[in-house]
Amino acid sequence: MKNVFERALASALMELLSSCDSAPEWSVAEMLALLEHPPDAALGDYAFPCFQLARFFRKAPPAIAAELAEQWGNSDVSAHGVEQVQATGPYLNFTISPGVLADAILPAIAKGHSFDAPQVAARERVMIEFSQPNTHKGFHVGHLRNVALGDALCRIFRYNGYEVVGANYIGDVGTHIAKCLWYYESFNQDPPPEQQRGAWLGELYTKATLLLEDAPVEQRKTYQQEVREILKKLEGGDPKLDATWQETRQWSLDDFAEIYEWLGVHFDCVFFESEVDDEGKEIVLQGEQDGVFQLSEGAIGIDLEEELGFFLLLKSDGTTLYSTKDLALAKHKFDQFGIDRSIYVVGAEQTLHFKQVFATLRRMGYEQAELCHHLPYALVMLPEGKMSSRAGNVILFSQLRQKIMDSLRTQHFQARKGEWPDEEIEETCRKVAVAALKYGMLAQDPAKQIVFSMEDWLKTEGDTGTYLVYAYVRICSIVRQLGIEPSADADCSLLCHPNEKALSRRLLDFNRAVWSAGEQFKPSLLAHALYGLARDFSRAYTTCSVKHAKTEALQHARLLLFHGVAETLKQGLHLLGITPPERL
RNA sequence: GGGACUGUAGCUCAACUGGAUAGAGCAGGUGACUUCUAAUCACCAGGUUGUGGGUUCAAUUCCCGCCAGUCCCGCCA
């Protein structure tokens, strides 16, 4: 994705070089690949490094750069918007006229056709599976990272022209549920609470695992046998237990629905493990008969050899595993949704598991296995180590949300009480809290661990979601108070302050940032681009007043610029799943 | 034992995928609110990019060895 200036520069450079005797044939693509940004805006907007020319010209790079600069001046070669060409050391630096730069992007934003999706060659249909919470367990801050990541990728891929199916896959069967229900039926004395019953089930699950772990050896064996029986009953469809399962499962689903709504996340389809359980078992049994899978120590699996090893697909007691269900789920995805690509947003600890799943699908004859992609992300850790629902040392999403909301109310919205309607205060707090939470989760490279510390999440200064939202709101305020509609006809050539120019450049680069964020599966790239935009705006805010602009023409030009910044911030935040308020 | 990921300022993170003087935010120091909102801005200070080699005109970036952290390696998810 190259912009008009880069394309113009590339062909101009090619023209310039082809007039030199000793130079080989160059392509525009090669020129484009070489172009980069100087580290300091004062040096120019684009830079052409001359190192690779040295071997052809048999001269030192700085000498080549100087010569090229001179030649450029003497020839009639020119490129769109270039107002200065200068050699600095081994680089040939180009400065684009700030007015031309602004004119290349601001009117387009004002007219509303700057955020059109780039055309993907073959409009691929992509399924992105994310969130995957387990019922009967608490929804903690680790789950939040997954949701933020998956939802942002869905939005970014859609913006980039893909057809996206956002999918959830809820774990509503398995050992953990047997444990929870075992405790619920045999030990629990308390009535379920009115609210957040799913989280309460999570507590029961924790109590169950602790009871199991702390029991004396003989007692533990008995307990484990009881849990196994419950699991078998669950899979066998025991009517009484099934009713309990249905009821408690719904409590968790209600919790999840409330959380997703609060976060503004929605799914195009929802799979349940309970739906693919039986089918998975059939697939494995059939595969064993067909000789694709093998019986081993009473269980069924597949020998994937070498680095993937033996992959277990069905337990010896006939109950299913994660792997069992993953086979059936993959089949569903491809057979029923006609997708071209299947992305799994799942923790990095399951990297081997998914390599094994995809390899197994391949062995089964599924060519689509090649199109499956596991997107691993690192865990949210506590300072003392890994969070574990089993051990109960988790920070629940609801706890974090409560703390942030309370902190915002007391620190920033006390003064609005009475001035604003209560509902607006609450809704604005929610929007800021969502911004803080999602930005916090997305601004970091997915491959890196997040060590959770509550005080970090309550910050509203610096590199935070709040900062971005604040920048947006200030522009809204400017436009509101000025009472003038931003016009695409404003004179962009007046926007020549370095701070104004920096903004134009940011806006011009926006679509590319979104594109990279999608192709590299890193919303963090977009998050950083937006933070840079907000920071450059805050600088321009203090140096380039709209209200106090020297002339009316300049005022209109700045209004157009800031309006473009606001629109871009809003669009970018939207792609991260954040909706900024209009005032704070 | 084998494998994956990570290691950059006191702390949390960037670095346009191999380029110029490695940048931000917190925390610390100094300034700026009768001004389009100070949830902000300007400035100072802070570095042998874990470590040792190698490839290259050029390495935080690519390759190899070692160290440290996290995680995975058949009846958990």
Structure description:
The chain has helices at 4-18, 28-34, 54-57, 61-74, 98-103, 106-110, 141-159, 175-186, 197-214, 217-236, 239-263, 273-289, 322-337, 351-363, 397-412, 422-442, 454-457, 465-482, 498-519, 523-543, 552-575; strands spanning 46-49, 82-88, 91-96, 125-129, 163-170, 269-272, 294-296, 299-303, 310-314, 341-347, 372-377, 380-382, 385-386, 450-451. With 584 residues, the protein is α/β, with parallel strands linked by helices. It folds into three domains: 4-96, Arginyl tRNA synthetase N-terminal domain (Gyrase A, domain 2, 2-Layer Sandwich); 130-273 and 341-386, Rossmann fold (3-Layer(aba) Sandwich); 399-575, Isoleucyl-tRNA Synthetase, Domain 1, CATH 1.10.730. A five-stranded parallel beta sheet has the order 6-5-4-10-11, sandwiched between helices. Strand 4 (125-129), helix 7 and strand 5 form a beta-alpha-beta unit. The chain binds one RNA strand of 77 nucleotides through strand 9, helix 14, strand 13, strand 14 and helix 18.
Which helices and strands appear, and what pairs or packs with what?
Elements: H1 4-18, H2 28-34, E1 46-49, H3 54-57, H4 61-74, E2 82-88, E3 91-96, H5 98-103, H6 106-110, E4 125-129, H7 141-159, E5 163-170, H8 175-186, H9 197-214, H10 217-236, H11 239-263, E6 269-272, H12 273-289, E7 294-296, E8 299-303, E9 310-314, H13 322-337, E10 341-347, H14 351-363, E11 372-377, E12 380-382, E13 385-386, H15 397-412, H16 422-442, E14 450-451, H17 454-457, H18 465-482, H19 498-519, H20 523-543, H21 552-575
The structure holds one RNA strand of 77 nucleotides.
